[in-house]
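Slack export, channel: ligand-projects

TW: morning all. Re-posting the request from yesterday since it got buried. We need the structure predicted with the small molecule present, not the apo form. The ligand is pyridoxal-5'-phosphate; the SMILES is in the block with the sequence. No rush, but it would help planning for next week.
GE: picking it up
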Amino acid sequence: MKHSTKSVWGGEEKSLIAGATQVPIVSSVVFAYDDVDKWSDVILGKEDGYIYGRMTNPTVDAFEEKVRVLEDAEAAVSFATGMAAISNALFTLLSPGDRVVSVKDTYGGTNKLFIDHLPRFGIEVTLCDTTDHEALEKEIKKGCKVLYLETPTNPTMKLIDIARLSKAAHQVGAIVITDNTMATPINQNPLQLGSDLVVHSATKYLGGHGDALGGVICGPKNLVNQIYEYRMINGAPLDPNAAYSLIRGMKTLQIRIERQNENAMEIASFLKKQPLVEDVFYPGLTDDPSHELAKKQMNGFGGMLSFSLKGGLEAVNEFLPRLRFAHLAANLGAVETTVGPVHTTSHAECTLEERKAMGIPEGLVRYSVGIENASDLIEDLEQAFKYIENKITVK
Ligand SMILES: *Cc1c(COP(=O)(O)O)cnc(C)c1O
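GE: finished. pasting the full token output, ligand included:
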């Protein structure tokens, strides 16, 4: 099966009951047995079945299966949110005295885990400059339990070489986790590049409609099972209603991503020519520092881009409300275009100083391209540029 077939058919078979063509929302918290021995066998894992909603559920199961098939993984486990997936993975795999190596501009919530929470448990965290592969390799060589990657990064769209760093990590016996939220399984498959685990905020592109929260991790059975055991106790399962919305959204994953890839390329090229735009960050642009790596490691350049305006935050504040076809909102990866400045979106959790340390300019606009017509989006941007032209003082 190719990606588009997987996103439509993948993982559903077992959960289609009574001839239903769509996976039903099973809202029952518990599952009953006529036979105590069978019940016991299911608890012991000797037989397939469902026990209690904090463990798993037929709707949730179908969602996990669909992502598993798309990532070509042995196993998958889902969570209430993307952050639950990330924190459960890290708290499962790390113990006091262990060390994590990662990069400075991971997602804001992940960065918060690294700087505030893991250190409280005696876990050492080393964050390198995101694109400095030599520095990363040097830190990995010193020994670490986990190498945590995110590529492309949010919001400056920097790329990290998954294959190269996975190789370095495996030489010291580290487990590699890659956040694949931005790329989706359509544009990038980290497991095939050497990452041990892949994590998604399903809230974004997988669901694609901004109406359900969720997270998921895929990888080999032994690691995924460990994380599942921890999640079961930690208590952050995916809700069956959300699982249903995510499954429904994922059926169109391939065609949405293809369209978003195309739209983002057109818009990035347009922005590049705008006199009021200081910088455009999009790996699809041939002069982008990550372009060559993107061609090597990705199947598409993605639907996310960011750009900075001459005139800084002041200009951004005038510009954004003029856009007609863009929600000013913190979400990304939906069918509608969403925009926002960084301090209210991906890095709302961080202070100004923390954002500065991550190399994120305050005049940066995160633009998550939807599936609208690209010419309409460009016209919309054009009129907003025209509006601010005379209003802002260019520094
Ligand atoms: C949004 C996001 C997360 C967190 O996901 P939630 O579902 O909001 O908890 C993690 N990583 C990346 C790259 C994200 O964009």
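GE: first-pass observations. DSSP finds 16 helices and twelve strands in the chain. Residues 81-83, 107, 109, 150, 154, 179, 181-182, 201, 203-204, 213, 215 surround pyridoxal-5'-phosphate (CB under 6 Å).
TW: perfect, thank you
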